[in-house]
Fold:
Amino acid sequence: MEFKDYKKLSLANDIVILTTVDKNEEDKRKVPEKGIQVLLIKRDEKPFLDSWSLPGGFVDYDKDVDTCAKDKLYEKTGIVDIYMEQLYTYGAVDRDIRGRVVSISYMALVKKDDVITQINSKENNKESEWFWVEPKRNENNKIVDICFVSEKTHEHLEDLSFDHKKIIMDALDRLQNKIEYTDIAFQLVSKYFTVKELQMVYECILGYKIQAFRRQIDAKITPTQIVKDNGAAHRPAVLYQYKNKQKQFDHYNL
Structure:
């Protein structure tokens, strides 16, 4: 067969934008636990009209796939120079009823306070929200299912458009694996942080409490002259920063 004889397919990007956020804690003396949130978009066209999905879209003919992914990420977060890596390619024949669509997915990690999001702006009429991700794990701590809860409306979702729930599960699995042998968790804390805040990030991703965390992380952090006064009865906490901040995943940033 010649090139012209092959049927054409469409190529798309789907982007899992993850952040970690403090959960509500009534006891002000305690450091709040953290949870994971993902940015979702409400679809305004068929298929899956009015259902929630990952941000993304079709790859422009005159752009490479990584450039398109970066452009779509900027549209939704308003920031550049962000941690982003390619996940997997999803190509099930029936994943889109409109035709043969293959999606290259990406995972992006953001600090929520840095996001200058275009959510619900006049320039972007697609409704967007942050959703809490609630993983369900088996006895081996592997994520076997997830549900989503809107931070704004508290709406519960058990599924998403297309295969986007599967893509998010794969992103969480990748994140859980990489946090144990890389410094990827530092992408989810502010420039200055307490050891306890960093520990909460690790624990919400791994799904279990960590013993002797300070000893495990000590070689990767350095104290600053800044303290955090959280208004509690005990003395303010010293803030730390990532020791290797000049080498922070440059080879992963697309």
Remarks:
- The radius of gyration is 20 Å.
